[in-house]
Amino acid sequence: MSFAKWIGGALGWSFGGPIGAIIGLAIGSLIDGTAQQGGFLLGDGQTSRKQSRGTHNKRPNYGKQTQRSQTQSGDFEVSLLILASVVIKADGIQDQKELDFVRQQFVSMYGKERANHAFRLFKNISQQQIPTRKVCMQIKQMMDHSSRLQLVHFLFGIAKSDGIVVEVEVKQIYTICGYLGISSRDYESIKAMFYNSSDNAYKILEITKSASVDEIKKAYRKMAKKYHPDKVIHLGKEHQQGAEEKFRQVQKAYEQLQKERGF
Fold first, then answer.
1. Of 2, 3, 81, 165, whose CB count within 10 A is highest?
2. What's the DSSP call for residue 72?
3. Which of the residues in the chain have pLDDT under 70?
């Protein structure tokens, strides 16, 4: 596959706007080698071309409200790469454990070859000054809520990968959530999945300790629906693993409260 065919097939809405500019700059040093190898960086090529046929040449007007299109695996992937670089650099240090976490996650999701390509692109992205607000506004405008929640879950995983979540990283993720249109309750729910405290189960279910049994049951049904893996099925099986982890955390929180409350 030529590079030109890949770039037209693996990316949809992220081909334009500030994300497109970042990706374009990042692939500048990679394009010759990739084209010679006939390889690709993101997406699976054939599947992505079918999904984006007739749309990838249209660049949306990000100055106006644009109808949200279905996010493809490649769109999610480049968004993930860019925001991951922002979080990793939040404390001024690119910790090797955090970099290893990103690589390991990509290997588990995409396989070694595709992960290696993506990580090469990630390293080029991390050398840039990222306009975080503009990038997040593009993602907010074009990506559905469930997929944005999945991005946040991955970002907390990066921050926790070195064993310590420093305050500057938490603040950076909180800022990103604000730009992405993620509510403070959703932010606290996902954050609680990466911490151990006495009220984590309540935070994950987005309720307080004063909640009644009926309110706990109602909250569980609501959160199970919100975090169900099928919500991100359009991103491909590779991205459902993280969604399944969130879903398990909701179930675990509910089971913990069942035991504590005796119902």
1. 81
2. P
3. 1-11, 29-70, 162, 164-165
